Amino acid sequence: LSLPLWAIFVVEKNDVKRFTFDYSYWSHDGFKVTESGVFVPASPDSRYASQQTVFDDLGRGILQNAFDGYNCSLFAYGQTGSGKSYSVVGYGVNRGIIPIACAELFQRINENKDPSKAFQVTISIMEIYSEKVHDLLSVKPKEQAALPVRQCASRGFFVQDLKKVPVGSYTEIEQRMAQGSERADSTGATGDRLKEGANINRSLSALGNVISQNCNDSGDLTGRY
């Protein structure tokens, strides 16, 4: 396995596979820990990618597009242990894309000097597990029935009855994210590994169909995924 620039080469015996990406990051070594506990490159020539580097490449454009009036999504996909949660959410002082984006969101709001502009920020946190959607900001998510996913002409796809909580600062968002994380364990998302595996395989199959049709430029998707 080698990782030069934006390509990954996987060598198995005499077979070499090349995978090309817009960005490719290294985080295995080449870092040091600051007094505050933040991981940063150990030297100017280190290839270690810090959380801030990942945000600057991937998150800053999302935040700008949101301010420009576009709906934005951040989708992390990969095998268990590949670093999805760490990159997106982070751990401790090593904040991921979402916490950094939220902090910069309110920084930009506070720097606004245009009296004709007003901002309102709400947060929702949901969990999708075994084909069921749960509201993690609900008071008792375990007792709440799975929320239905609807579609309408004006709103597109949405989760019916998903709670939207107004927030006025990054600190409030941190508190809500901690609340959602604590309640994720109380939704009953444990136990039946066979059913869990079947649902995961079905989801992966649907995702594969979507990617395949997009790559083939087929226009409309032949199903709702």
Structural overview:
It comes from Schistocephalus solidus. By secondary structure, the protein is of the alpha+beta class. The chain folds into 3 domains: 1-118, 3-Layer(aba) Sandwich (Kinesin), CATH 3.40.850.10; 120-190, no CATH class; 193-225. It is built from 5 helices and 12 strands. The chain has helices at residues 51-67, 84-88, 97-110, 170-184, 193-215, and strands spanning 7-12, 15-20, 31-33, 39-41, 90-91, 94-95, 121-123, 126-129, 132-135, 149-152, 156-159, 165-167. A two-stranded antiparallel ribbon has the order 1-2. The chain has a two-stranded antiparallel ribbon with strand order 3-4. The longest helix is centred in the last third of the chain and has 23 residues, at 193-215.
Structure characteristics:
3 domains; 20% strand; 225 residues; Kinesin; 33% helix; alpha+beta
Question: Outline of this structure?
Answer:
This protein has 225 residues and is α+β, with helices and mostly antiparallel strands. It has 3 domains: 1-118, Kinesin (3-Layer(aba) Sandwich), CATH 3.40.850; 120-190, no CATH class; 193-225. It has helices at residues 51-67, 84-88, 97-110, 170-184, 193-215, and strands spanning 7-12, 15-20, 31-33, 39-41, 90-91, 94-95, 121-123, 126-129, 132-135, 149-152, 156-159, 165-167.
Overall CATH class of the largest domain? Alpha Beta
How many beta-strand elements? 12
The spatial strand order of the largest sheet comes to 1-2
Q: Give the helix proportion (percent range).
A: 25-40%
Q: In the residues, how many domains can be counted?
A: 3
CATH topology of the largest domain: Kinesin
Mean pLDDT: 82
Q: Can you say what the CATH homologous superfamily of the largest domain is?
A: Kinesin motor domain
Which value, in Å, is the CA radius of gyration?
Answer: 20 Å
* Broad shape: globular
| SSE-based structural type | alpha+beta
Helix count, DSSP H or I runs of 4 or more residues: 5
Poorly predicted regions are none
The CATH architecture category of the largest domain equals: 3-Layer(aba) Sandwich
Distance between the termini: 33 Å
Keywords: ATP-binding, Motor protein, Nucleotide-binding
GO molecular function: ATP binding; microtubule binding; microtubule motor activity
Protein name: Kinesin-related protein 1
Family: Belongs to the TRAFAC class myosin-kinesin ATPase superfamily. Kinesin family.
